[in-house]
Amino acid sequence: MSSFQIIVGSMLGGTEYVAEAAEEVLIEQGHTTKIHFKPNFSEISQDDQIWLFCTSTHGAGDFPENIENFIHDLKNYDQDLEDLNFMIIAVGDSNYDTFCEAGKTLHNIMLEKKSKPINDIFTIDMVAIDDPEEAAANWIRSNLDRFNDHL
Q1: In terms of DSSP H, where are the helices of 38-114?
Q2: Would you state the pLDDT for residue 147?
Q3: What are the φ and ψ backbone dihedral angles of 102, each rounded to 5 degrees?
Q4: Of 16, 4, 37, which Cα lies nearest the Cα of 136?
Q5: Do the beta carbons of residue 103 and residue 9 sit within 8 Å?
Q6: Strand, helix or coil at 79?
Q7: What residues does 34 pair with on adjacent strands?
Q8: For residue 143, what pLDDT is reported?
Q9: Ranges of residues in the chain whose predicted pLDDT is under 50
Q10: C-alpha dist (Å) from residue 105 to 12, 18, 24, 101, 144
Q11: Distance of CA 111 to CAs 34, 83, 89, 120, Å?
């Protein structure tokens, strides 16, 4: 089974619930997880891991405060992360022109670091989806076969 580092960027707590729903499905399927509500780049394992990001967008396309230092350290990390696979669940409100912008920016940063995306960004529109936790859980379930391809 795979090992996941779940890295959360959240301002009001809603994205934390999304991350916990994703974690629950991963654990049910026998994967190991570690969730980071206050992520510290130097403390998150990169070896034989899949990084699952769950982040909202704040303000004009910005990252939530709790993940800003992580993003800064990630950008300034002087090595490639070519052995690291990642996935992104981006939470936002489609009424804004910066819908899920933090997730899209993060995706580009990870690509610049030569990390490998397991799949496209999954966006959750808080206006259109009644149960974002269920949407995240279903998305994880529908992608379980991809995890084994990236061990």
Answers
A1: 65-76, 101-112
A2: 65
A3: -60, -45
A4: 16
A5: no
A6: coil
A7: 5
A8: 86
A9: 151
A10: 20, 19, 26, 6, 25
A11: 23, 12, 16, 12
**Phi/psi at 54 (5° precision):** -125, 110
What is residue 83's predicted lDDT score, i.e. its pLDDT? 93
What is the Cα–Cα distance from 94 to 116, expressed in whole angstroms? 27
DSSP character at residue 77 = -
- With residue 25 as reference, give the H or E element that holds it: helix 14-28
Residue 98 contacts residue 87 (beta carbons within 8 Å): no
Give the pairing of strands 3-9 and 32-36: parallel
Largest pairwise CA distance in the chain = 41
Single pTM value for the model = 0.95
Report the alpha-carbon angle 40-41-42, nearest 5: 95
In angstroms, rounded to a whole number, what is the distance separating the alpha carbons of residues 33 and 75? Answer: 24
- Tokens, residue 15: 């994205």
SS3 at position 106 = helix
Q: Provide the pLDDT for residue 101.
A: 97
